[in-house]
Amino acid sequence: MPDKSDKVRVRFAPSPTGYLHIGGARTAVYNWLFARKHKGSFILRIEDTDAERSTTDSIEGILDGLKWLGLDWDEGPYFQSANINAHKKAAEHLIETGHAYKCFCTKEDLDMKREAAKTSKQPYKYDRNCRKLSAKEAAENEASGIPCVVRFKVPDREGALVFNDLVYGPIERHYDDIEDFVILRSDGSPLYLLSNAVDDINDGITHVIRGQDGLANTPRQILIYEALGARLPEFAHMPLTLDLKKQKISKRTHGEVVAVQFYREHGFLPWALVNFLVLLGWHTPDDREIFTRDELIAAFSLDGISRANSIFNYRPGDPKFFTDPKALSINARYIKELPVEEIAWQIKDKLKEAGLYDTQYDGAKRQWFLDTLNLLRVRYHTLNDFVTLGRPYFSDEFQIDQKALNKNILKYPEVKDWLPQLAEALSRLPTWGAAETEAAIRGFIDKTGAGSGVIINAVRTVVTGQAVGPGLFECLAAIGKERVTTRLKNMPNLVMA
RNA sequence: GUCCCCGUCGUCUAGCCAGGUCAAGGACACAAGCCUUUCACGCUUGCGACACGGGUUCAAAUCCCGUCGGGGACGCCA
User: ipTM, 2 decimals?
Assistant: First the structure.
């Protein structure tokens, strides 16, 4: 058990896959939060021993995701592959101290036994054949060139190995149920269980916070710690995130939605994603849901992690929700409630990508820019909405929504005549603002006897391309006299086309 | 199959450890109404869950047992 005085050291140890998986990101978030909360260190270690998957690009994908989320690490990235010698040495040490032994059973042999056990519905466990070999016999085997693996010698003890998981509580595993597992392959390379434990020891990890799929490995790793005479870290396993069918979420079956990068591309604020992810299987005593970074760090505790797996509520092909609705709603809330300046630079990036950014938004038109974002953001859900739905505010090239056209324009043939007339009236306004345009339009309505809803909705459709949006007069004020009058004048072309 | 873990509204969850204040609370989603020139804005209301069966108890979502359901682990993968 680590001393209370010890500085907390946690790690996130992904294997490189080219992108950061949201499940992995959640694990990273919990570790990062725990480190920050306890003023400890958050260490990044890449478990890259599966060589062919570990390219520079696939590692970069992970780092990129973490950086975007704002999960800064204090040490690393370390690479597991760099420590292979240490892992081998640990295995040798285990053999010398009688905690491991060489096993000459062939893979084919073991496969057969495993298969036989399966067909006869018997539980399979390695029969410890080579454990009984004398030192002399082992040496002879080796001398005659028979390949061997190294197995860990599970102690012959009565009862069960018990450890206290910080999330799941006491976990028991009978020694009888643990088989002598392989720690070194026949080519001498180390296996995950060993490497992982040795690295954690070397990195001085005090708390192993990882997915529940590591829970069943823990007893074996504890045995390695013991045999190596290392101090045990605390373990905290977190529930998994599954899909609606209770399957693990993966890029293979679910596509890009499981990748953190997807959320950047789709207009998420990184912190909104973090906030969503942290809520998947964790809560505060007072059930708060929205946190600033500092609030979250202060509020975070392993106690709040639940034990049941949670579900990522993603319905493929849903036209309205391209990801979990709760994630979208949290994102929308941040877009709505953050100080505008904080979202403005991120919207700038999006507008630039779309070729819609005017450098004056940083200068003379700064105030207009911020006011317009304020006007729009109340009903937007993602940053991308500013370049799609918000396009008519920044550009003259935009599509008119077909439904809006049918409903607000084509249904009323008279508007074809009215709108250009209205454009005339508006163009004569000496000053341009919501109050002025409202007065002018209401005056026009009185004069022509047109329905106010008809005119207002028609104007909205022509000027913004949509049937929905903020109050019309504020829209007009934001879009500006020039653009508004031009769009109204050109309106009959729309009907022709 | 064996071992381990889990099981409250559609989803995230509160409550469970220290049984009564829970005819089970919040959030998201959904529905209706209101507002309004419109809406994926706002406001109000509504719909909706203790997996099942036993037991203990004056009293059980909360404790015990069983059943069922789900997940994970059982590799010379990580």
Answer: 0.95
